[in-house]
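Amino acid chain
________________
===
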Amino acid sequence: MNATYNTGEFPTCVWFMDSLTLDPEQYTNLEKSLQMTDCSWRIIVSHYPIITAGVYWGDPEIIKFRRRISPLIKKYKIDFYISGHDHSSPVIHHNRNFNDTVFLIAGAPSFVNIHSVSRARPLPGGADLVWFDDRNLRVVLYLELTPEQFEYKFVKLTDKGDEIIMSGTKSRK
């Protein structure tokens, strides 16, 4: 399933995937959709991450899903892959094998696997674990897009006010 958000100034394409049941027909439809779109920003959203340093790092289902979806991410130069499932909040950059794709895992709004992320876990293809939070609960991901820049913030929601605990940007080249 995909959706295109168009502000009138710049189109942003977002594809929502069911990472558990990505059958051959869905895969083909996704690739056709990726081929036919001209977007300022390309974003895939899925429940499962395909790259993680958290508790699901070696999960066979995630490895299988990564092998299936990675060629499309590379070929169609996806800017961001946003997921959950891992119950932590990592930011992973992949500059070599994924054309600068940024992987954001927004997995800690209601439950967190404390001390689950490890920098010792090798990430596939030389990906870089830029930042993570596996201690705080009620952490949400906030996104803001312009034609030139994509800003992301991990925000901790508290009774005393919201606190930005990490922010980053990706600019159009």
Notes: The mean pLDDT is 87. The helical segments are 24-35, 60-75. The chain has one domain: 2-135.
